Amino acid sequence: MEQQRWLLLLFLGVQLLLMGAFLYQNPHCHGFISFLRFLIQDRPEVREELPFLVQVSSPGIRYWDVYSNLSQIHPVDISEEDLPNCPIVSPYINGPLKVMIPENLTMEQVVEKNPLVELGGQYQPPDCWTQHHTAVVVPYYGQAQHLRDLLFHLHPFLQRQQLHYAIYVVNQVNNTAFNQGKLRNVGFWEAMQEEDWDCIFFHDVNLLPEDDRNLYICDIFPAHVSVAIDKFNYKLPYGGYLGGVFALRPIHYLRINGFPNTYWGWEREDDDIAARLKLSGMLLLRPHLLFGRYHMLEEGQDPSHKQRPQSPGLLARIHRKWRHDGFNSLGYRLLSKELQPLYTNLTVDLNFPAP
Ligand SMILES: *[C@@H]1O[C@H](CO)[C@@H](O)[C@H](O)[C@H]1NC(C)=O
Ligand SMILES: *[C@@H]1O[C@H](CO)[C@@H](O)[C@H](O)[C@H]1NC(C)=O
Ligand SMILES: *[C@@H]1O[C@H](CO)[C@@H](O)[C@H](O)[C@H]1NC(C)=O
Ligand SMILES: CC(=O)N[C@H]1CO[C@H](CO)[C@@H](O)[C@@H]1O
């Protein structure tokens, strides 16, 4: 009798194990994950709870100059260790911003407007201690006017948020086709050599943020930030669009093995990045459409924001290669690193095999 009971228990135990294994493998679980993703994405974000939510369509809304109030920021006569912590919500955050680039703007004027930015394009709030350290990496392919306009707008934008930040421009030379993924990988590596950044923003050179509640800090998952671009009527041009501004923590970056190095030209790598996130078990966050608003400067070379038809077997191909194509297979030569007043200029030759 006793032995029979034991056998029965053993039998039930094995059943339970099998059921667990089955459930784990079962595709329904993916359904559950998508459901979770849906929940997380639709959950109001912290930013939304800030007290100044406005209706975009309301006629009375006030658009602030991106430099307004910044002249109030001054270095204080306290040693760095004794600085108070910055407030959780920066007092300079106002909401919708005017995007206005002065006529005939010169880089010297931009430097003059940003006296607290240090050589190499680095800044920290002079009057308080912040716990946010963000590197902005800008792949660059000769768009000099866009860069000047971006610096004019982005520096005060980031200062409004009281972040410690730096801007890295990754300048591709030697006239091969533009390779955004590889430039992003180079920017990540070079930036991390300099500082212990806790958040990396990969930023197109021609996108200017229109709302300072769009915080340039990282969340618990990678984020596609430029969700509402004026050129696309302030919505995603297509569901899987991941271009423009993309943010993640270094640990996330390593988990997806960075970005692919093998997309040349203006070919979009959206599907590849989406697959990397999925295969490494992470979700994608997006800010609220009210905050993730951008003005796109007139496009230079980038012609296509149309969705490519997904070629059959693409996911399977990415599945096979993503662990071998990315940060761990990055080969390049740093030709120069110049500390400009408003940015660090990393000039790289990408036609270089992996070590
Ligand atoms: C910013 O400046 C405006 C006037 O330009 C003023 O009304 C507002 O109170 C200022 N905000 C802060 C935080 O100083
Ligand atoms: C900008 O430059 C053009 C041509 O050099 C000149 O005609 C115009 O007056 C300038 N505008 C301003 C605001 O200085
Ligand atoms: C970056 O440095 C390279 C090499 O000195 C130079 O040719 C290029 O014009 C610079 N680019 C920018 C945007 O400063
Ligand atoms: C492969 C190649 O052509 N590399 C060249 C890229 O440009 C730099 C400077 O302009 C040269 O030093 C490299 O030899």
Short précis:
The protein is α/β, with parallel strands linked by helices. The protein has 8 helices and 11 strands. Helix content is 29%, strand content 15%.
Task: Set down the secondary structure blueprint.
Elements: H1 2-25, H2 28-42, H3 107-113, E1 122-123, E2 133-140, H4 144-160, E3 164-172, H5 180-194, E4 199-203, E5 207-209, E6 223-224, E7 228-229, E8 245-248, H6 250-255, H7 270-279, E9 293-296, H8 314-321, E10 333-339, E11 344-349
Parallel strand pairs: 2-3, 2-4, 3-11, 7-9
Antiparallel strand pairs: 1-3, 4-8, 5-9, 6-8, 10-11
Helix pairs in contact: 7-8
Explain what you see:
- Responsible for the synthesis of complex-type N-linked oligosaccharides in many glycoproteins as well as the carbohydrate moieties of glycolipids.
- It is found in: Golgi apparatus membrane.
- The protein is an alpha/beta fold and 355 residues long.
- 29% of the residues lie in helices and 15% in strands.
- It has 8 helices and 11 strands.
- The strands form 2 sheets. Strands 1, 2, 3, 4, 6, 8, 10 and 11 form an 8-stranded mixed beta sheet that branches.
- α7 (270-279) crosses α8 (314-321).
- The model is unreliable at 22-57 (pLDDT under 50).
- The site of one 2-acetamido-2-deoxy-beta-D-glucopyranose has 2 residues, from loops.
